[in-house]
Amino acid sequence: MLSSHPELFVISAPSGAGKSTLIKKILSDNEDFDLSISATTRMPRVGEENGVHYHFISEQEFVSLIDEDAFVEHAQVHNHRYGTLKSHIQNKLEEGKNIILDIDVQGFKQIKSSGVKNISIFILPPSFSELVERLQRRKSDSKEAIERRLENAKKEVAFYDQYDFVIINDDVTRAYNALKEVIFSKKLNTDVNLIEKILLDMLS
Q1: 3-class SS at 52?
Q2: Cα separations (Å) of 130 from 120, 202, 203?
Q3: What is the domain range of residue 163?
Q4: For residue 34, what pLDDT is reported?
Q5: Cys-Cys crosslink for 48: which of 42, 44, 68, 88, Cβ 3.0 to 4.6 Å?
Q6: CA-to-CA distance for 19 and 11, rounded, in angstroms?
Q7: Does 55 fall in a domain?
Q8: End-to-end CA distance of the chain
Q9: Domain for residue 17, yes or no?
Q10: Is 132 among the domain residues?
């Protein structure tokens, strides 16, 4: 059962593990959930709206907010800054919304260090070969980009045990049911041996 108090759920996964699909299903099935919106210094793309897709702010404003300790996490990616504002999370929680924060491992480590209360979930692919196939099926990345994502995946999965829960996405329906169990019951029967097997496969 979901807590009577709105909560922050932090979800991480290597690229290709199916995290976005699972998050979209939770958001579409539950109107009291919102996806956290990041602040960024990059310019809006066609069709993007301020406060809907991102909070678009200037470089100077972003730096000032860092100095004010206004972010729970922030990073620089491809010459632009991205970050999650404490005020954004707090406002959503006060509105009665549960927040899902889709974040990478580096961002999670910052959140964990900040002491902000959250429930953290790591999504694992069933194997390294399956992850390769999923990334190739996208047909949206170059061979070099895929190789880079796979190298990053190896680094990210090494931190799986820092999270409260680990879900293996070998089947979307099964993984979604596991995600719902975590969110609504705060429990999950985890196959530790299978996780260790996947980790050995990913890191070999």
Answers
A1: coil
A2: 24, 10, 14
A3: 8-36+98-203
A4: 96
A5: 44
A6: 8
A7: no
A8: 39
A9: yes
A10: yes
